[in-house]
Amino acid sequence: MKKFTSLLLSLWAAILLISCNPDGNEVPLGEFEKGGILIMNEGAFGANDGEVSFYEFAQESARPNIFEAANNRPFAGLLQDLVEHNGHIYLVANTGKVEVVNAGDFKSVGAVEGLDISRSAIVTNNKLYISDWGPYDANFNSPDSYIAVVENVKGDPIATKIPVESRPEGLFAVNNQLLVASSATRKLSVINLNQDTVSRTLDITGRPSFFFESGNNLFLYAHDASNVYFHEINKSNITISRTITVNLSRATSNFALGTDNSIYIITSTGWPDYNDAVAKVNLSNGSVSNPEFFKGSGFYGIGYRNSAREIYIADNNGFQGNGSVIVVNESGQEVKTFTAGRGPSGFKFRE
Amino acid sequence: MKKALIIASLWISFPLLGKADFRMHLGDTLELNVVEVKGPDLEKYAAGQQLLRLQEKDLQDFRGDALTEVLQRRTGLFLRQHGPGMLASLTMRGTSAGHNAVFWNGLPINSPSLGQADFSILPTAAIDQVDIHLGSSGALYGTDAIGGAVHLGTRQLFNQGHRLEVGSVLGSFGRWDRSLAYSYSNQAFSTKTRAYRQHSRNDFPFRNLSRINTPIERMPNGEVTQQGFLQDLAWNISIRQQLHVAIWYNEADRQIIPIIGSNTQDQQQDRNLRAMLDYLHFEGKNTWNVKAGIVFDELIFNIAAVNKTQQYFLSGELDRNWNDRQSSRTGFRLTQIDGQLDTYEAQEQRWELYHSQKILPSPHLTLTANLRQFVYDGNWAPFTPSIGGDWNFLRTANQKLSLGFAAARSFKVPTLNDRFWNPGGNPDLLPEDSYSSEISLQQELTTNGFAIKQHLTLYRMWVDNWIIWLPRGNIWSPENIRSVINSGLEYRAQVEKKMGANHWSFTGIYNWVQAINQTNSSANDQSKGNQLPYTPEHKVMGTLDWQRNSWSAFLSSHWVSERFVATDNQLSVAPYELVDIGFRYQFNFLNTKKLNAGFHINNLLDKEYHIMRLRPMPGRNYQFNCTITL
Prior knowledge:
The structure holds 2 protein chains of 2 kinds.
Chain A: H1 2-16, E1 18-20, E2 26-28, E3 36-41, E4 51-56, E5 61-63, H2 66-71, E6 79-85, E7 88-93, E8 97-102, E9 108-112, E10 118-124, E11 127-132, E12 146-150, E13 160-163, E14 168-174, E15 177-182, E16 187-192, E17 197-203, E18 207-214, E19 217-223, E20 228-234, E21 239-246, E22 251-257, E23 262-268, E24 276-282, E25 288-296, E26 299-305, E27 310-315, E28 324-329, E29 334-339, E30 344-350
Antiparallel strand pairs in A: 1-2, 3-4, 3-30, 4-5, 6-7, 7-8, 8-9, 10-11, 11-12, 12-13, 14-15, 15-16, 16-17, 18-19, 19-20, 20-21, 22-23, 23-24, 24-25, 26-27, 27-28, 28-29
Chain B: E1 12-13, E2 22-24, E3 30-32, E4 39-40, E5 50-54, H1 56-59, H2 67-74, E6 78-81, E7 88-91, E8 100-104, E9 107-108, E10 129-134, H3 138-141, E11 148-153, E12 161-171, E13 175-185, E14 189-200, E15 205-207, E16 216-218, E17 224-238, E18 241-255, E19 267-283, E20 286-301, E21 305-323, E22 326-340, E23 345-362, E24 365-376, E25 379-380, E26 384-395, E27 399-412, H4 416-420, E28 432-447, E29 450-472, E30 475-499, E31 502-517, E32 538-548, E33 551-560, E34 563-564, E35 572-573, E36 576-589, E37 593-602, E38 610-612, E39 615-616, E40 621-629
Parallel strand pairs in B: 8-11
Antiparallel strand pairs in B: 1-4, 2-3, 5-10, 6-7, 8-9, 10-11, 12-13, 12-40, 13-14, 14-17, 15-16, 17-18, 18-19, 19-20, 20-21, 21-22, 22-23, 23-24, 24-25, 24-26, 26-27, 27-28, 28-29, 29-30, 30-31, 31-32, 32-33, 33-36, 34-35, 36-37, 37-40, 38-39
């Protein structure tokens, strides 16, 4: 009887630990896929000390440098983006590489090298697409920006580079098309994935950065010195169906989608005053609920934890050492802080 | 012959010859056996502090190297070195890179825009002597000398006739250095001309930690070429007057080794012109000195970013030996700085007045006091006094024991970049300000044929208004935020023994440094109470030298403890130990002609190491050097 009880308990535990992946295969969740937050730490300029921390809800502290711990070598790059697809995590370094690791244990499975200033990545059509600014010219402009195409989603040499408008950032795949937001030229490029060529480009108001979905609607976030723009994109014909203009000055490209159509956006007065804040904005009508929902300095990234309705704000602590994470509730009150890595800049919640 | 007898005041020292090379009479005059160009006596008003002197013998194993290697491998000092031949900045007593003053023949050569010197472009080929003043010495030297000072000098002798020296170094990773020196001197006039060219492909193997399986690769972007010339001229104008002129031009063309994980292909050119004119007038108890000089620096980064500064100096001082027990030095220095930097232009005038006093209350007690006021562009830097003393409390036939103490205030004026960099420069910055104190014990002992010298120093320093650059949005800007307490210990032992024809000597050094940050730069910063980045707590160095007739050899090793990467002390670079070995042979021919040949193996144990994180250093490497003196 005792043995039977143990068996039942084990089965129950196993069921709890199993989730369905998008392919429908059931695999147990790895240690970095549940019970915590993956924190992207960009690293300090010139130090190549970007890494990933894993904040464990149970321990209420972050495990540092999980890439190095899993692979016995440093990440050795500046971490620009962290993208998950089908059991893999793509660590996009703006120092010229993408590391591919298992989402569960962060063990390396491959890499893409020979990049320049990579910004983001996406897997679609069983290929890996990486947005890259390309090398700087003598005036630190980026005239040779591209999307790198890699045939093997576990990493391989670059098969081809698709030239795109200057400084591509966020990517979104829809209907066999890849949408590319280029911040320098303020364009949205549409790449036909059958031919891996740019089929057309659209002008965008504001400096576009990233795509996001709210409900079934696709938006492109853009901003300039005075306003934030939510450009809604018609997925069927890739046009800007409407633009919600938010009268919010000094916004950055850092934002997080909350519940109830709220969006939290980091604003910064910049030098010399240097006052940062988190503004709360209503996506449905573009109104600013609170321009200074939370104030401080050194705000470098933001995330929203749906289950707890909490806002996670990354503080770079002046890059003097590791950064911190400030957890704020929906009333704008600080709940707690904890230490992350160098230059924390983004979150991936693993409930 | 009369000119060979130089009458000089006690102001003068003979640093290049060592104390054994001159005879000092107790009066106001002294007589030289060998006449040479004189420099200021650095020790005279620095009682209680240690000056470490590296001379030709110490530099001979580093032919063709930069000063970086000498200091890193033969002293207790630590240099933050970004790779072989790359930027190397000195940290003394746990202070930052710009907290030490660097002089060449008495001219301050720290870059006024960067506030520091790159020791990798100070080649030993142009230096005959290095004096390292350990400890705070702002009252003696002016700005920057918070942790100490480094004095580089050339040696100029009279009455030596003609001399030609040709040297070459061949080494691993495509290294080939060449040097040529010609000198001529009679009793009244002396000239020395030297030229050098150093080249290294610098493509040493390293482990690429950023790639899967961490393959061993060749360094792709590290080629270094450095060349320059140096002209020394000196005249004994009369028995009371001497003139010394020196001109040094050095240029370095470097590919900048990228940090592991980056594929940058940066390049940097540095051009430095330094020239000085030194006039000495001896008059009874007084020695007058007038010095004029220029230091032109040009740094070009990736062709487009051109940074130029010009410094013009004029200084004068009077050193007077009032009697056997008292002397003083009073002087001024005017500096005009012009800068045409990549993002701004700036000018600055500096003037400084100083006074030093030395008193010997008893033959065994020396006390010194120094005062200096420095003004830059109408801003008064902290008034800097210092005091020091040496008490020789035990003197027997075979042993001498002395106790030293010193206390000093020092400062560093904000650099031009700190104040004017566009955008971000902060014109309201205050000078960095420090107080320090130290005590030391020195022993000289001869026993059983061993000649032993030991020196132990304990120090503590408080540095306030420490400037750090912080991000203010996309722009970084400097602020007087940090305050640091530095404390530590320096121990140095030298043991010499002659056994028949074999001459053995051993130098051992241990430095312990705690540089503890006292402030947080922001609300969530966790820097307080931690060791400063890239400041190893421990460094141990030992060198064993052996000489027998024409043969000599050395075995040298140093160990450096872990270095934290940032102020929160979370990430560190592993400790490392290096062993170097070398052999030399000197062959004399045609009476006065000499051939020196040497073979060195550096990093004998082929250790993989980084001085700074992800900045690899070479494994085992070899070099052969040969110098012919005609």
